[in-house]
Amino acid sequence: MNRVERITYYENLMSNAQKTLADFETALQEFSSAQKSLSELGSYLKSRQWMNDFEAYENGKLPSDLACGVLSEDGIFNLLEKNTQLLHTACNICANPL
User: Fold this and answer.
1) Residue 80: partners with Cβ closer than 8 Å, 6 or more residues away
2) What is the pLDDT of residue 98?
């Protein structure tokens, strides 16, 4: 690879890395902000209120057009598990920096 090709190659690497890091920074801020919501969802899932709401859903006592994904048997649980997996991934990355 000649000098111009090399500089162009590394310039592209740098440009792509800058965009990736900027995107990651934004995503990381959003991920951090979402932790409170995820905690609330976990508390709701463990509550008697969730069970009551689930029973009402199962017995057809809720409006048919009401979004009820939060009442699916695995919806919140899977979301919390995904969050845990992402936290572990982040920890592994931090434990093994460049």
Assistant:
1) 38, 41, 42, 45
2) 78
Q: Give 13-43 pLDDT, tens digit per residue.
A: 999 999 999 999 999 999 999 999 999 999 9
Contact 38, 83 (CB under 8 A): yes
Distance CA 55, CA 71 (A): 9
Whole-number Å distance between alpha carbons of 51 and 68: 13
pTM for the predicted model, two decimal places:
0.79
How many CB atoms within 10 Å of residue 37?
10
How many domains is the chain partitioned into structurally?
1
Phi-psi region of 34 (alpha: psi -120 to 50; beta: other; left: phi over 0): alpha
Boundaries of domain holding 82:
3-95
